[in-house]
Amino acid sequence: MRKNLILWIELLFALVSIWVLTSVNQRPEIANIALRVYVLVMIGVTGALVLLFRHYQSRHSSVDIARICETVCNLDVPALIWTNDLNTLYTNQAMDEILGIGESEDPGDSAMLLSTLFHSMGISPRSAAEELNGRIYRSTLLDFDRNKRYISWSTSLLKQNSKASLYFTIGFETTELIKAKHSLTAYAKSLAASESRYALSMRLAGIGILLCESVHDVFYVSEEAKEFLGVDKNEITFNEFRQKLHPEDRFLFDEYLNKMRSSQKDNTLSKPQTLEFRIRTAVGRPYVWYSYHYQENLTNATGGPIIGGALIDISSEKLKDATIERLAFMDDITDIANRNKLIQDGEETYRICKKTGSSCWVIVLDIDRFHIINDSLGYEKGDKYLRDFAHILCKYAAPSGMVARLSADNFAMLVHDYGDEELPLRTIEQIRIDMANLSTGDSATTALSCSAAFARIPSDGSSFKEAMEHAEFTLAMGRGQLSYLMGYNAALHQELVNKSEMEKELANAIALKQLQLYYQPKVDLRTGRTMGAEALIRWVKPDGTMVSPNLFIPIAEQTGLISEISHFVLHEACAQNALWQKIQFNPIVISINFTSEDFYQKNVCETIQDVLIRTGLQPKWLELELTERLALGDVNYTIQQMNALRELGVLLAMDDFGTGYSSLSYIQLLPLTLLKLDRSFIVKIETDTVAREIVSAVIKIAKSMGIETIAEGVEDEGQAEILRSLGCDYVQGYLYGRPMTALDFQKRLEAESNH
Ligand code: C2E
Ligand code: MG
Ligand code: MG
User: Fold this and answer.
1) What is the pLDDT of residue 106?
2) What angle do CA 9, 12, 17 make, to 5 degrees?
3) Is 569 a pocket residue for ligand 1 (Cβ < 6 Å)?
4) How far apart are CA 75 and CA 70, in angstroms?
5) What pairs with residue 457 in β-bridges?
């Protein structure tokens, strides 16, 4: 419409211009008139155009306001158009909701609604226009559903005339934002509260936190950790941290860092691990033990790797550990290591020696007659002596060795030999000199010395413990001797071990009745008849092998098993002889071998008598073969004991005569009935005239004293002939019969009795 009007004016203006131009060429008077008309028309047209423009302008602006109202209506944010006299108000639906106006409702008084709105902004309605224009105001309103709405309002002037000004106000709802802010504040508050609770728990639990993000060489430290480390800042570099560690623990920390760095590379989450180290807050301050419980490659909130852990003060636990270790590994009296500690450290030394090819010595020592100090000076002085002795040992074990008290007055030293074979000997020598200088305040103890034995590590045992046991074993071999000193000898040890193994086997053998008696005939040289038998014991193993009595009788003597064996022999031999007599063979004398241990038994007479009664054998058919070792004992007691046995009626023979210590004159004192000339004379009797002379003399002297003689080990007729010529009564040897089973012997007796 507006466009058409302007077109019409422009067309009219063009026609008039054409007419004027054509008139100018034809008639000048008309041209004059036309020019005037043209001017007048132009003035009229211009006036009309001005009027038209004004009209157009006023029409055009009213259309814009309508368009704005339309736009406002379509806005989904609250908006309103209003006049400063508060009489006109246009609101959109979003605004209606805020002002609490329902869809079908009459909006009501615009002035009242605007006042409500301006009051919510904290502005007086009268000055609203002035204050709001070009500014942003916030308000809090309750909407139709009585929900709190937070809105920021922006106002601008749309139109102004003399009567009133038109304003446009648009609201931007910040309700969600404010709510978010509120919840954020609440969250921040709860976070702060939780953080302070967390910090409090850490403080109460005494836990410091160390965290290290990514590859930065820095630990972020919690409040508690700051105190542990003596730092003010919230972070500490690895290097600063390392400086605060005990020098011995720094290596541990370096290892930890290396591990941590490599684990960061492969990004693997490690299992929680624990390190223990000592930290001090500053130089000059004492070190405190901490346990660092950490895990590698945790992830932080942004997904980056984080390494962290908790530091806990464990000094009291360490103190307890030290006390426990002290109790477990230290000797109370001397304050040096005990056996457990020595073995623990010794095994480590053994391992190092093996690895490096070096060697050292374990020396075990025993203070000779230490009980004298306790007995004469009391335990307090005794303890002091032990401490002094330990002190001497420490002097010679230092710097790289160690000393331990094993028990009572038994000590051990571990000394490095540095290739010195004589070191143990020289060390003991020095110790003895120092001991001689130890004063106990008692003259009786000034002469105290020590016995010692030593073994080499690693060659003298498959472990430290074994090497030390070997040294202790060697020391035990010298028990009873003063100032004994001996190095471990594997061959000697093996011999003793075999003995002890045999001892165990022998004890079993007795229980399992593997011991049997064999009988060797004794023959009367004049008649050639069997007049007796020597019972000789045999150990027949289940596999049939026979162990010689020369091997096991000495062991039985050392271990005390001999009395059990002797009792068996006594009973078995008497019973056997009684049985043969019952069968009515010619009665024979049965001989059994008696050791000096058997002989010196207090109730030996009673035992023998008891066996004789039980078996029904008359005493005169039992002969005890004694050895010359009896001569080593108390002569009077020996004679007394022999007399008692003789009174019982049993015969007494001196076995192996000529090999031992006793002289013929000594023999004359003893109530013997038979002398058994040792086989060593008989072997030489044919060739060695001296041997023959001795045998001859012995036989004569024995005869003069009423003692009969028997020769052992007769193996050939020549020997027998000489013995007969020298007047020997009886013979025993392979020539007449080897030791045989009871059954074989019985057959022999049978055969003889049939002659
Ligand atoms: P012994 O009492 O001097 O016994 C004689 C040993 O000489 C026996 O050895 C016997 O077999 C051996 N013998 C006998 N005639 C000959 C011979 O012509 N030539 C050779 N080469 N040897 C002959 P055996 O039985 O081995 O006994 C050895 C020793 O063991 C005995 O020496 C005795 O001291 C001891 N013994 C044997 N049985 C017992 C026993 O029951 N108790 C005790 N305490 N010792 C016993
Ligand atoms: Mg004998
Ligand atoms: Mg003999």
Assistant:
1) 65
2) 125
3) yes
4) 9
5) 360
